[in-house]
Structure formats: structure tokens, C-alpha cells
Amino acid sequence: MRADFQSWVAAHQARFEEVLRGLLPRADIAPQRLHEAMRYAVLDGGKRVRPLLAFAAGELAGAETARVDVAAAAVELIHAYSLVHDDMPCMDDDVLRRGKPTCHVQYDEATALLVGDSLQTLAFQLLAEHRLNGHARFPHPNPLPQAGEGANESLRELHANDDASRQLEMVRLLAVASGSRGMAGGQAIDLASVGKSLTLPELEFMHIHKTGALIRAAVLLGAHCGSVSAEQLDRLDHFGKLIGLAFQVVDDVLDCEADTATLGKTAGKDADNDKPTYVSLLGIQGARDMAQRLHCEALETLAGFGDSAQRLRELADFIVLRKF
Ligand code: GRG
Predict the structure, then answer these.
(1) Which residues, listed in sequence order, are joined to residue 100 by a DSSP beta bridge?
(2) The model's pTM
(3) What number of other Cβ atoms are within 10 A of residue 219's Cβ?
(4) What is the pLDDT, as a whole number, of residue 5?
(5) Which of 49, 62, 144, 292 has the highest CB neighbour count under 10 A?
């Protein structure tokens, strides 16, 4: 990692941690245990790859950081929810995540289920209530306004806002990426494919949805916070799709090669669970070669952007060369 990129990553990660701290419900507000568990699942962990992609796409599109913060937080909350639910006994049944006990181990299964539900809905709440055209508006400290309170004011703001249709598009985009035609759908295919052998196109279809959809959405949401042409948006979409798939191919390699301490999650789970992966289909070297090909193609899609896409290029390098 180049020093300049390293400090860009570190600065955004540190600032974004504070943004998340401010956006999540405080642990001393009822229901305290649920709010504490939500904060446990989101804060102090994770590489924040999706938010970083949103920040890089936002920079390319000339967006204000405060605008991208909200979009990046929405994506990260969806990601955190997916990890909490994925780790539960009814899915992957894991005990370690981000170097600490998984949410259902630290709390209990019912709490973990509600943490996932609440993080997911909070993501959409944030996208809906923060104005794009102006400064980010932090949520009401009591998230359940009394009848009539707050609602008219935020509706008026929305209607007065030139960017309202874009804001709605961002809500739609994240919903599609998270739902049955995106991440949740990919997870359903993943669960159904345990013990089966998939063809390469079937595996690709699963991962483009399970992992790729949210990564792609992160890039697009960042770009939507600024201004890009339809043609540029298409190219960014293609970049997001390729780098999302590359992320998963690398994840499959790391699951075989890295150790539990480095990953902060149980290594070797895919083979233990008899799951089809790029490594089981192509072998380690074949999977590495595929990640390299996707990386090159992803960089090609950025060719016309010049220096404005430098952070996206560096993130693509990081995603493919990462060791955790
Ligand atoms: C439960 C609806 C639902 C979906 C779960 C994404 C997912 C779908 C499950 C996660 C399982 C998993 C380990 C997938 C491999 C790729 C992946 C998403 C890894 C974790 O993402 P990182 O490496 O994690 O970005 P950090 O902790 O750095 O944020």
C-alpha cells in the first residue's frame, strides 16, 4: 500500500468510526440491550471496504463527504446485519467475527436476530431522512417521534429538495442490492448449495448476488452523492460488479490460506461446510489467476476517468492483494 493511500484509508476509517458512533442509537436509550448489541456488531471492527469504495466513488463524483457518510453508513449497516445473521446457528453457525465472539454468542440468538433486523431498517431510515442537498441531518435522539412531530417537517424538506428523486433512487438501489434479487438471494443459493457441486457460471451467479451486489451498490451510492453522467455511472457499475466478484474470489483463497487470527473469523469454514468455492472449482492458483483477471478488467473500466479514479484503483489493488 502506498503511504499516501494508507493515510487516506486510515483517515477515512477513523472519521467514519465516529460517524457510525453518532448514527447508531445510544446504548443508554431503551431498549438498552438491543442498542448495545447493535453497537457491538458495527463498531470497532471490519476493514470498512464498502464505505471506502463509496468515499472513493464520491470523490470521483465531486461529492461532499458529509453526503457520502450517510450513504456509506447505510451500506455498512446492511453489511453488518448480514454478518450477524450469517453467523447464527441457522446459517453458518460461527463463533468468531472481526476477532471477537459473534453477536449471538456475546448476547443471544433472539437479540442477534433483532440486531440484524434493526440495522437493516436503520440503513433505510438514514437514507430516507438525510437530505442530499445540504448538510447531513442527524436523527432525532428519540427515534420514535410522537404523532405529527417531525414527519411534516421532513416531508417538506424532501419536496423542496431538487435531489429527492436521486435520494429515492438510492433507497431503491440499496433495497434491490440487499434483497432477494441481491445479497439475501445469493445467501439463499449459498445455503442450498452446501454439499453440491456448482458450475462456474452458477458459482459466479451466487457470488455476484451474495457478496457482489452490496459492493456494487457501495460504488454507485457514492457516485450518486455527487454528479456523474449516465455513461460514467454505467462504467462505475461495471467496475463495482467486477471488483465485487474479485473480492469473493480472494475471500475464497484467504479462507484456505490464511489463519483464523489473521482473518478474525474461523478459517477453513468453506471446506469444513462442504461449500463450492472458486478454490474447490479452480484450485488455489486458478482462483488467484481469476482474481487477477477480474482486477485487470476492473481497472480497464476506469481508464477514462484519469486521476479522479485513483482511489478506486488503489482500492481495487487492495481488494485483490489483501491478506485478511
Ligand atoms: C444473512 C441475508 C444474509 C446474507 C449474508 C455477505 C453474507 C450474506 C454473508 C457473509 C459470509 C461471508 C463470510 C461471505 C464472504 C465475503 C464476505 C462478505 C466477507 C466479509 O466481508 P469483509 O471481509 O468483512 O468486508 P469486514 O469484517 O472486514 O467488514
Answers:
(1) 97
(2) 0.90
(3) 28
(4) 96
(5) 49
Helices (H), the chain: 3-23, 32-42, 49-60, 65-86, 103-106, 109-129, 151-159, 164-178, 183-192, 200-207, 213-224, 230-257, 260-263, 269-272, 278-301, 310-321
Report the pLDDT value the prediction gives residue 272, as an integer from 0 to 100: 74
Atom of ligand 1 at shortest range from CA of 81? 1
Distance between Cα 307 and ligand 1 center (Å): 30
Ligand 1 geometric centre to CA of 162 (Å): 35
Closest atom of ligand 1 relative to the 264 alpha carbon: 27
Domain that holds residue 244: 5-321
CATH number of the CATH domain containing 211: 1.10.600.10
pLDDT at 246: 97
Kindly provide the b/e burial profile for residues 144-180, where b requires at least 16 CB atoms within 10 angstroms of the residue's own CB. Answer: eeeeeeeeeebeeebeeeebeeebeebeebbbebbee
Ligand 1, atom 29: nearest CA belongs to which residue? 46
| pLDDT value, residue 320 | 96
Ligand 1 and 85: CB distance under 6 A: yes
Q: What is the pLDDT of residue 88?
A: 98
pLDDT along the chain (324 residues), means of 10: 90 97 98 98 97 98 95 98 98 96 98 98 93 46 40 40 81 98 97 91 96 98 95 97 97 89 81 86 95 98 96 97 87
Q: Cα of 211 to ligand 1 centre, how many Å?
A: 7
Q: For ligand 1, pick from 251, 252, 265 the residue to mutate: most ligand atoms within 8 Å of CB.
A: 251
